[in-house]
């Protein structure tokens, strides 16, 4: 199994998780991060690092967020690797508790 970045990351893009990843499996898009399922070793060290609780084990992704399993897999093939923490997006605090953000995802 792998881990999945879910909707909570959209328009926030906190990158605390990338600093602890031992295999550099995170990929960076304009306003979202994804996990490359082919690289993730299921170590779970990223989960407690996410300030918006956006990272879940694939088997724990709720049905309302299941689309993100495929989104992570697809975008991981297109987006570049990110291995160092960066500042969150400027309006991350405004977006961190919002739901229904899928339409905000820039692919």
Query: In percent, how helical is the residue content?
Result: 10-25%
Number of helices: 3
The computed structural class is alpha+beta
- CATH topology assignment: Alpha-Beta Plaits
Strand content: 5-15%
Mean pLDDT: 97
State the end-to-end CA separation. Answer: 24 Å
Residue ranges: pLDDT <50 for 5 or more in a row?
none
Could you describe the largest sheet, including whether it forms a barrel? 2 strands, antiparallel
Strand order of the largest sheet: 1-4
Characterize this entry briefly.
It contains three helices and four strands.
Can you describe what's shown?
With 107 residues, the chain is of the alpha+beta class. The protein has a single domain, classed as 2-Layer Sandwich (Alpha-Beta Plaits). 18% of the residues lie in helices and 11% in strands. It starts with a strand and ends in a 12-residue tail after the last helix. The model has no long low-confidence stretch (mean pLDDT 97).
Summary keywords:
alpha+beta, Alpha-Beta Plaits, two-stranded antiparallel sheet, two-stranded antiparallel ribbon, 3 helices, 4 strands, 18% helix, globular
